[in-house]
Design a protein that fits this description.
The complex is a heterodimer of chains A (263) and B (325). Chain A is an all-alpha fold. Chain A contains 11 helices and 2 strands. Classes of the chains: A mainly alpha (263), B alpha/beta (325). At the A-B interface, helix 1, helix 5 and helix 11 of A face strand 6 and helix 4 of B. The structure holds adenosine-5'-triphosphate and magnesium ion.
């Protein structure tokens, strides 16, 4: 465990010193927040509430969506792609640490650095330009934090599974981008799926993605009852278990392939 | 120390047919080609040895090194290090092993060298005193301390190799595998590397197994050579023994006063140009002194020298078809 804490620490130092591309995301999230705030304001001009949510709540939703997106930045896909490309996976696997544990710790480290470099600035900009995104019912805070934690893990596992495609010798750089935007779209991060046609929303409900953004954000803005939230948290947890199971199986397969085929 | 028993490795290679049609066909009905990279290698290495693995490109050297260091699972056979099977006890055996690949650095591109070392110190749970000791020793041999604050991505190849060597020694492995460590290095870096190998072998009794295409490395370092070709062991022994066995001849170079050069029935003239002639003779057939005496009886000799068969010759013979390293 101490090893992984040290990896997190090293990653924080590394992110603080070498990574300069943090402002790009602030600009990008600011643009997303502002354009969607105009979009929602226009939509709500003639009505107070839609699908049980009012305009104010929707603005909170989009700001928190951008804030949450920082926690959901993963680098594991690119890490896998690079180490497969450079051929260092096999030797990395020899070290007395779990390779994916290392990638996980690195992503945690990067995100901790981003909390200051990215998340707080985005929260500040959203608060100044749009509104202060206060939580509807602070009694829901524990549930919200729990669902964010599960959302983080689900998102990371999907990313790691995605990265493992790199082991089949496909160039995944372009796919990584597609996946990133697809998740934002399918997870209700920009438009909650309760605004989608029922058939589409049904399909999306059956997928894990809405548990990445929409569930924690719904809890935050207080859409739905606590009983509903608890039920959804259970489904979220089941998704986590399913993805973890798939991850372990695929990881075992991939490790064996590297050991037999030489990476 | 290291026991290699009937070690073999087959690679399955997906055959790729050309064109879109071929690609589709490959998806549905993948055709595999088996490459026998290493076939039935057996040998034993004692503690403190420096063993050179040589052979032409594609001979199976890297594959063997990877299996011996636990990176690759053998198709057949086993590798035991200190009695423990490396496939079965990978996690524990691997702590006792260091590996450096000349062509691919294992250093973290985004960190300073010292940060990479610190990270390894934690990953291998190295005692701080041992860690400092190793750095001290490495500084003495490679001058590593002046590189410690340098970001790895800004380092030259030679500096990175030094970094990789130090990184591989931090957890004080008793066996060090080096796959073409001198590739791309300039003369002075090569010397530093050879000094490194000799010193860790002397100071720490580290067993070193290296592959190289550099004859200088072999002459300087390896008491023992293992020559493989097409995945098969060709020779195993001391350089001088191998020379005696597969190239038990010397070459007499004689310079005459004109272009006429006499023949001798107990040797073969391998070269004759201008006033120079070369005679290859077996040590058992005739001595150099006798040959010179016989030749000078037929024709006056101006100058002579004797060439021992060396590593170049045994490599030509062992690799077959005169392929150069
Ligand atoms: N991962 C792999 N998949 C399929 N075939 C491989 C793989 N790695 C090596 N080979 C094949 O196995 C054979 C032995 O390769 P190896 O890399 O062990 O040779 P080598 O002796 O190290 O050569 P070199 O001197 O060029 O480094 C070669 O024919 C090579 O093409
Ligand atoms: Mg090789």
């Amino acid at each position: 465990m101490k090893k992984y804490l040290y990896i997190i620490k090293t990653q924080i130092i590394k992110s603080m010193t070498y990574e300069f591309n943090v402002y790009g995301n602030i600009v990008m999230q600011t643009i997303i927040m502002i354009t969607s705030s105009y979009f929602w304001k226009a939509l709500y001009r003639n009505q107070n509430s839609a699908a049980g949510v009012n305009a104010e709540d929707m603005l909170t939703y989009i700001i928190m969506s951008s804030v949450l997106s920082v926690l959901l930045i993963t680098n594991v896909e690119r890490r896998i792609e690079q180490s497969v490309g450079k051929g260092t996976v096999a030797t990395d696997m020899m070290k007395p640490v779990n390779l994916f544990g290392v990638y996980f710790a690195e992503d945690i480290g990067s995100i901790l650095a981003l909390v200051f470099q990215n998340m707080l600035p985005i929260l500040l900009i959203g608060s100044l330009l749009i509104k202060v995104p206060v939580m509807k019912d602070s009694g829901d805070l524990p549930l919200f934090l729990l669902s964010v934690l599960l959302s983080f893990l689900i998102n990371w596992l999907i990313a790691a599974l995605f990265g493992m495609i790199a082991f089949t010798a496909v160039n995944i750089s372009a796919l990584i981008q597609v996946k990133k935007h697809l998740i934002r779209l399918l997870s209700g991060s920009i438009i909650p799926i309760w605004f989608f046609p029922e058939s589409v929303s049904k399909v999306l409900s059956a997928l894990p993605f809405i548990y990445i953004y929409q569930l924690p954000l719904s809890i935050y803005i207080g859409r739905g009852s606590r009983a509903e939230h608890l039920a959804q948290l259970q489904i979220q947890f089941v998704w986590l278990l399913i993805l973890a199971g798939v991850f372990v199986a695929v990881q075992r397969q991939v490790t064996r392939k590297v050991m037999v085929q030489g990476g | 120390m290291i026991d290699v028993n009937h070690l073999s490795k087959d690679y399955l290679l997906k055959k790729k047919a050309p064109g879109l049609k071929g690609a589709l066909k490959g998806l549905i009905h993948p055709q595999f080609e088996v490459i026998h990279a290493v076939r039935d290698l057996s040998f034993h290495i004692d503690e403190g040895e420096i063993v050179g693995f040589i052979g032409p490109n594609g001979a199976g050297k890297s594959t063997t090194i990877k299996m011996m260091s636990g990176i690759l699972t053998p198709t057949e056979g086993s590798v035991r290090i200190n009695g423990e099977n490396i496939t079965e006890h990978r996690k524990t055996v691997v702590r006792n092993i260091g590996v450096v690949f000349g062509q691919r650095s294992q250093l973290n591109w985004d960190l300073r060298l010292g940060e990479t070392f610190e990270l390894l110190k934690h990953i291998y749970e190295i005692d701080p005193i041992d860690y400092e000791n190793t750095l001290e020793v490495m500084d003495g041999i490679l001058g590593i301390r002046e590189l410690i604050d340098k970001p790895v991505r800004q380092m030259s190849l030679g500096q990175r190799v030094k970094g990789d060597l130090t990184a591989s020694m931090l957890h004080s492995p008793s066996v060090l595998f080096l796959d073409e460590p001198t590739i791309g290095l300039d003369v002075s870096s090569k010397f530093a590397l050879r000094r490194f190998i000799k010193e860790i072998n002397q100071i720490r009794k580290t067993t070193v197994i290296l592959t190289t295409h550099d004859l200088g490395d072999i002459k300087e370092l390896c008491e023992r050579l293992i020559i493989i070709n097409h995945g098969v062991m060709m020779e195993d022994g001391k350089l001088s023994q191998i020379v005696d066995r597969i190239a038990p001849y010397k070459t007499l170079v004689a310079e005459y006063y004109d272009e006429q050069a006499p023949e001798h029935e107990k040797c073969e003239m391998t070269f004759h140009e201008g006033n120079i002639a070369k005679y290859r003779f077996m040590k058992k057939d005739i001595t150099a002194a006798e040959l010179i005496a016989d030749l000078s009886r037929q024709k006056e000799i101006k100058d002579v020298s004797i060439e021992e068969a060396g590593i170049d010759d045994i490599i030509k013979i062992a690799y077959g078809s005169g392929s150069i390293l």
